[in-house]
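Hello Y.,

Per our agreement to keep a running log of every chain we model this quarter, I'm adding this entry. I've kept the format consistent with earlier entries: sequence first, then predicted structure.
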Amino acid sequence: MKVWYGEGGMLKTQHCPIPEPEPGQVRIRVAACGVNRADLLQVAGHYPPPPGAPEHLGLEVSGVVEHGAGAFQAGDRVMALLAGGGYAEYVCVDAGSVLPIPNGMSFAEAAAIPEAFVTAYQCLFEVGQLKTQERVLIHAGASGVGTAAIQLAKASGAWVAVTCGTEEKAELCQSLGADEVILYRNQDFTEVFKGIDLVLDPVGGDYLNRNLKVMATDGRLVQIAMMGGRRTEIDLALLLAKRLTLRGSTLRSQSQPVKTRLVQGFWQRFGNGFAQGRIAPVLDSRYDFESAPQAHQRMSGNANSGKLVLERASESG
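Predicted structure for the entry above:
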Protein backbone atom coordinates (compact mmCIF):
# COMPACT_ATOMS: atom_id res chain seq x y z
CA MET A 1 0.00 0.00 0.00
CA LYS A 2 1.08 3.59 -0.64
CA VAL A 3 1.76 5.87 2.35
CA TRP A 4 2.98 9.42 2.97
CA TYR A 5 5.88 10.08 5.34
CA GLY A 6 8.34 12.86 6.11
CA GLU A 7 12.04 12.90 5.32
CA GLY A 8 14.40 15.86 5.46
CA GLY A 9 11.51 18.27 5.87
CA MET A 10 9.77 16.97 2.74
CA LEU A 11 6.66 14.89 2.17
CA LYS A 12 7.42 11.67 0.32
CA THR A 13 5.62 8.46 -0.59
CA GLN A 14 6.63 4.85 -0.28
CA HIS A 15 5.01 1.43 -0.38
CA CYS A 16 4.48 -0.65 2.76
CA PRO A 17 2.85 -4.02 3.42
CA ILE A 18 -0.81 -3.99 4.43
CA PRO A 19 -0.76 -4.14 8.25
CA GLU A 20 -1.97 -7.25 10.05
CA PRO A 21 -4.24 -6.66 13.06
CA GLU A 22 -3.11 -7.78 16.49
CA PRO A 23 -5.61 -9.20 19.01
CA GLY A 24 -8.17 -6.56 19.88
CA GLN A 25 -7.39 -4.45 16.82
CA VAL A 26 -9.68 -3.40 13.99
CA ARG A 27 -8.34 -3.14 10.45
CA ILE A 28 -9.92 -0.30 8.51
CA ARG A 29 -9.86 0.32 4.78
CA VAL A 30 -9.25 4.08 4.82
CA ALA A 31 -11.67 6.35 3.00
CA ALA A 32 -10.40 9.67 4.39
CA CYS A 33 -7.83 10.95 6.85
CA GLY A 34 -7.55 14.22 8.74
CA VAL A 35 -4.59 16.58 8.39
CA ASN A 36 -3.19 18.00 11.62
CA ARG A 37 -0.45 20.43 12.55
CA ALA A 38 1.29 17.52 14.25
CA ASP A 39 1.78 16.06 10.76
CA LEU A 40 3.69 19.17 9.70
CA LEU A 41 5.84 18.96 12.81
CA GLN A 42 6.59 15.29 12.11
CA VAL A 43 7.64 16.09 8.53
CA ALA A 44 9.95 18.79 9.90
CA GLY A 45 11.54 16.25 12.26
CA HIS A 46 10.17 17.81 15.46
CA TYR A 47 7.46 15.30 16.46
CA PRO A 48 8.46 11.66 16.00
CA PRO A 49 5.79 9.00 16.48
CA PRO A 50 5.68 7.25 19.85
CA PRO A 51 7.33 3.81 20.16
CA GLY A 52 5.44 1.13 18.27
CA ALA A 53 3.45 3.54 16.09
CA PRO A 54 3.82 3.55 12.30
CA GLU A 55 6.44 5.93 10.92
CA HIS A 56 4.13 7.36 8.27
CA LEU A 57 1.80 10.28 8.93
CA GLY A 58 -1.80 10.51 10.07
CA LEU A 59 -3.57 10.70 13.44
CA GLU A 60 -7.21 10.11 12.43
CA VAL A 61 -9.11 8.27 9.73
CA SER A 62 -12.53 7.17 8.61
CA GLY A 63 -13.39 4.14 6.53
CA VAL A 64 -14.87 0.67 6.47
CA VAL A 65 -13.96 -2.16 8.84
CA GLU A 66 -12.29 -5.02 7.01
CA HIS A 67 -11.32 -7.07 10.09
CA GLY A 68 -13.52 -6.67 13.14
CA ALA A 69 -12.79 -6.63 16.85
CA GLY A 70 -14.68 -5.58 19.96
CA ALA A 71 -18.06 -4.14 19.00
CA PHE A 72 -17.10 -3.68 15.33
CA GLN A 73 -17.73 -6.06 12.45
CA ALA A 74 -16.60 -6.18 8.84
CA GLY A 75 -18.51 -3.63 6.78
CA ASP A 76 -19.10 -1.13 9.60
CA ARG A 77 -18.50 2.56 8.79
CA VAL A 78 -16.14 3.88 11.45
CA MET A 79 -13.71 6.63 12.43
CA ALA A 80 -10.63 6.17 14.56
CA LEU A 81 -7.96 7.98 16.56
CA LEU A 82 -4.41 6.85 15.73
CA ALA A 83 -0.89 7.28 17.07
CA GLY A 84 0.27 7.39 13.44
CA GLY A 85 -0.17 5.80 10.04
CA GLY A 86 -3.40 7.34 8.77
CA TYR A 87 -2.03 8.57 5.43
CA ALA A 88 -2.41 5.06 4.04
CA GLU A 89 -4.83 2.63 2.43
CA TYR A 90 -5.26 0.53 5.58
CA VAL A 91 -4.73 1.03 9.30
CA CYS A 92 -4.90 -1.27 12.31
CA VAL A 93 -6.02 0.27 15.60
CA ASP A 94 -7.25 -0.88 18.99
CA ALA A 95 -11.03 -1.18 19.05
CA GLY A 96 -11.12 1.21 22.00
CA SER A 97 -10.00 4.05 19.70
CA VAL A 98 -12.72 3.36 17.12
CA LEU A 99 -16.15 5.02 16.94
CA PRO A 100 -19.19 4.45 14.70
CA ILE A 101 -19.97 7.03 12.04
CA PRO A 102 -23.45 8.50 12.61
CA ASN A 103 -26.04 7.94 9.90
CA GLY A 104 -25.86 10.59 7.19
CA MET A 105 -22.32 11.69 7.98
CA SER A 106 -19.77 11.52 5.16
CA PHE A 107 -16.37 9.87 5.45
CA ALA A 108 -14.74 13.30 5.05
CA GLU A 109 -16.69 14.75 7.97
CA ALA A 110 -15.99 11.69 10.13
CA ALA A 111 -12.24 11.86 9.44
CA ALA A 112 -12.26 15.41 10.82
CA ILE A 113 -13.55 14.36 14.24
CA PRO A 114 -11.27 12.04 16.26
CA GLU A 115 -8.03 14.00 16.76
CA ALA A 116 -9.52 17.49 17.03
CA PHE A 117 -12.54 16.66 19.15
CA VAL A 118 -10.86 14.17 21.49
CA THR A 119 -8.02 16.68 21.99
CA ALA A 120 -10.57 19.39 22.81
CA TYR A 121 -12.44 17.01 25.12
CA GLN A 122 -9.27 16.06 26.95
CA CYS A 123 -8.14 19.66 27.38
CA LEU A 124 -11.49 21.08 28.42
CA PHE A 125 -12.81 18.35 30.70
CA GLU A 126 -10.10 15.85 31.69
CA VAL A 127 -7.28 18.35 32.18
CA GLY A 128 -9.09 21.68 32.42
CA GLN A 129 -12.01 20.45 34.57
CA LEU A 130 -14.40 22.89 32.87
CA LYS A 131 -17.67 23.42 34.70
CA THR A 132 -21.04 24.80 33.64
CA GLN A 133 -21.16 28.62 33.45
CA GLU A 134 -17.39 29.01 33.71
CA ARG A 135 -15.56 31.37 31.36
CA VAL A 136 -13.17 29.79 28.85
CA LEU A 137 -10.75 31.51 26.45
CA ILE A 138 -9.78 29.56 23.32
CA HIS A 139 -6.86 30.86 21.27
CA ALA A 140 -6.70 29.99 17.54
CA GLY A 141 -10.45 29.51 17.66
CA ALA A 142 -10.82 28.80 13.94
CA SER A 143 -8.37 25.88 13.98
CA GLY A 144 -9.53 22.29 13.99
CA VAL A 145 -9.15 21.97 17.76
CA GLY A 146 -10.48 25.49 18.27
CA THR A 147 -13.70 24.91 16.35
CA ALA A 148 -14.18 21.64 18.23
CA ALA A 149 -13.50 23.24 21.61
CA ILE A 150 -15.97 26.08 21.00
CA GLN A 151 -18.76 23.60 20.31
CA LEU A 152 -18.00 21.27 23.23
CA ALA A 153 -17.63 24.14 25.68
CA LYS A 154 -20.91 25.75 24.57
CA ALA A 155 -22.70 22.39 24.70
CA SER A 156 -21.56 22.17 28.33
CA GLY A 157 -22.93 25.58 29.31
CA ALA A 158 -19.69 27.59 29.35
CA TRP A 159 -19.18 31.21 28.27
CA VAL A 160 -16.66 31.18 25.43
CA ALA A 161 -14.17 33.85 24.35
CA VAL A 162 -12.01 33.36 21.26
CA THR A 163 -9.03 34.93 19.53
CA CYS A 164 -8.45 34.47 15.81
CA GLY A 165 -6.77 36.14 12.84
CA THR A 166 -9.34 37.33 10.29
CA GLU A 167 -12.90 38.63 10.04
CA GLU A 168 -13.92 35.46 8.20
CA LYS A 169 -12.55 33.31 10.99
CA ALA A 170 -14.27 35.49 13.58
CA GLU A 171 -17.61 35.02 11.82
CA LEU A 172 -17.06 31.26 11.79
CA CYS A 173 -16.34 31.19 15.53
CA GLN A 174 -19.43 33.25 16.25
CA SER A 175 -21.54 30.91 14.13
CA LEU A 176 -20.33 28.03 16.30
CA GLY A 177 -21.53 29.80 19.43
CA ALA A 178 -18.57 31.86 20.67
CA ASP A 179 -19.83 34.65 22.92
CA GLU A 180 -17.03 37.12 22.21
CA VAL A 181 -14.37 37.08 19.49
CA ILE A 182 -11.44 39.41 18.89
CA LEU A 183 -8.84 39.66 16.13
CA TYR A 184 -5.46 39.31 17.79
CA ARG A 185 -3.82 41.62 15.25
CA ASN A 186 -6.24 44.43 16.10
CA GLN A 187 -6.79 44.06 19.83
CA ASP A 188 -4.80 42.94 22.85
CA PHE A 189 -6.85 40.21 24.47
CA THR A 190 -5.60 41.27 27.91
CA GLU A 191 -7.50 44.52 27.50
CA VAL A 192 -10.75 42.78 26.56
CA PHE A 193 -11.05 39.58 28.58
CA LYS A 194 -11.02 39.29 32.38
CA GLY A 195 -11.99 36.66 34.91
CA ILE A 196 -11.21 33.68 32.66
CA ASP A 197 -11.52 30.34 34.45
CA LEU A 198 -9.90 28.19 31.76
CA VAL A 199 -7.54 29.03 28.89
CA LEU A 200 -6.74 26.69 25.98
CA ASP A 201 -3.56 27.92 24.35
CA PRO A 202 -1.72 26.44 21.34
CA VAL A 203 0.44 29.56 20.93
CA GLY A 204 2.82 29.71 23.90
CA GLY A 205 5.69 32.18 23.81
CA ASP A 206 4.72 35.61 25.08
CA TYR A 207 1.10 34.51 25.40
CA LEU A 208 1.92 32.83 28.71
CA ASN A 209 2.12 35.93 30.90
CA ARG A 210 -0.72 37.57 29.00
CA ASN A 211 -2.88 34.54 29.75
CA LEU A 212 -2.03 34.78 33.44
CA LYS A 213 -3.21 38.40 33.46
CA VAL A 214 -6.71 37.59 32.21
CA MET A 215 -7.26 34.55 34.41
CA ALA A 216 -9.53 34.46 37.44
CA THR A 217 -8.43 33.31 40.86
CA ASP A 218 -7.94 29.52 40.80
CA GLY A 219 -7.96 29.61 37.01
CA ARG A 220 -6.43 26.87 34.85
CA LEU A 221 -4.24 27.24 31.78
CA VAL A 222 -3.90 24.23 29.46
CA GLN A 223 -0.97 24.53 27.04
CA ILE A 224 -1.57 22.36 23.99
CA ALA A 225 1.12 23.57 21.55
CA MET A 226 3.83 26.20 21.13
CA MET A 227 3.25 27.82 17.75
CA GLY A 228 4.54 31.14 19.13
CA GLY A 229 7.67 29.75 20.77
CA ARG A 230 8.74 27.27 23.41
CA ARG A 231 10.44 29.62 25.87
CA THR A 232 9.37 32.72 27.76
CA GLU A 233 9.69 34.29 31.18
CA ILE A 234 6.90 33.85 33.68
CA ASP A 235 5.61 36.26 36.31
CA LEU A 236 5.48 33.99 39.33
CA ALA A 237 3.78 36.69 41.39
CA LEU A 238 0.67 36.36 39.20
CA LEU A 239 0.81 32.58 39.46
CA LEU A 240 0.98 32.72 43.25
CA ALA A 241 -1.42 35.58 43.90
CA LYS A 242 -4.20 34.01 41.83
CA ARG A 243 -3.42 30.38 42.78
CA LEU A 244 -3.25 29.52 39.09
CA THR A 245 -2.67 26.06 37.60
CA LEU A 246 -0.56 25.59 34.46
CA ARG A 247 -0.85 22.21 32.72
CA GLY A 248 0.61 20.82 29.53
CA SER A 249 -1.42 18.36 27.48
CA THR A 250 -0.72 15.96 24.63
CA LEU A 251 -2.86 13.15 23.26
CA ARG A 252 -0.68 11.17 20.88
CA SER A 253 1.72 9.78 23.49
CA GLN A 254 -0.98 8.63 25.91
CA SER A 255 -1.23 4.90 26.64
CA GLN A 256 -3.94 2.87 24.92
CA PRO A 257 -6.02 2.49 28.11
CA VAL A 258 -6.03 6.27 28.53
CA LYS A 259 -6.94 6.80 24.87
CA THR A 260 -9.76 4.29 25.18
CA ARG A 261 -11.12 6.14 28.19
CA LEU A 262 -10.90 9.49 26.42
CA VAL A 263 -12.37 8.34 23.11
CA GLN A 264 -15.24 6.43 24.69
CA GLY A 265 -15.87 9.11 27.32
CA PHE A 266 -16.03 11.77 24.63
CA TRP A 267 -18.53 9.75 22.59
CA GLN A 268 -20.67 8.85 25.57
CA ARG A 269 -21.00 12.52 26.46
CA PHE A 270 -21.26 14.09 23.00
CA GLY A 271 -22.13 11.33 20.52
CA ASN A 272 -25.82 12.23 20.50
CA GLY A 273 -24.89 15.79 19.62
CA PHE A 274 -23.23 14.57 16.43
CA ALA A 275 -26.06 12.18 15.61
CA GLN A 276 -28.60 15.00 15.98
CA GLY A 277 -26.50 17.57 14.10
CA ARG A 278 -26.04 19.90 17.07
CA ILE A 279 -22.27 19.35 16.97
CA ALA A 280 -20.36 18.91 13.72
CA PRO A 281 -16.80 19.13 12.41
CA VAL A 282 -15.92 22.21 10.38
CA LEU A 283 -14.42 21.24 7.02
CA ASP A 284 -12.17 23.84 5.43
CA SER A 285 -11.02 21.86 2.39
CA ARG A 286 -11.05 18.36 0.95
CA TYR A 287 -8.07 17.07 -1.05
CA ASP A 288 -7.49 13.85 -2.91
CA PHE A 289 -4.92 11.55 -1.33
CA GLU A 290 -2.25 12.50 -3.87
CA SER A 291 -2.53 16.18 -2.91
CA ALA A 292 -1.19 15.90 0.64
CA PRO A 293 1.59 18.47 -0.08
CA GLN A 294 -1.01 21.08 -1.07
CA ALA A 295 -2.99 20.42 2.11
CA HIS A 296 0.16 20.82 4.20
CA GLN A 297 0.98 24.07 2.40
CA ARG A 298 -2.43 25.50 3.24
CA MET A 299 -2.11 24.56 6.89
CA SER A 300 1.46 25.87 7.19
CA GLY A 301 0.21 29.26 5.97
CA ASN A 302 -2.54 29.29 8.64
CA ALA A 303 -5.04 29.72 5.80
CA ASN A 304 -7.52 27.08 6.97
CA SER A 305 -10.64 27.58 9.04
CA GLY A 306 -11.47 24.19 10.50
CA LYS A 307 -10.17 20.87 9.23
CA LEU A 308 -8.33 19.72 6.12
CA VAL A 309 -9.06 16.19 4.93
CA LEU A 310 -7.45 13.83 2.41
CA GLU A 311 -9.85 11.54 0.55
CA ARG A 312 -9.48 8.42 -1.53
CA ALA A 313 -11.58 8.91 -4.66
CA SER A 314 -12.89 5.34 -4.69
CA GLU A 315 -13.99 5.62 -1.06
CA SER A 316 -15.39 9.16 -0.85
CA GLY A 317 -18.94 9.61 0.35
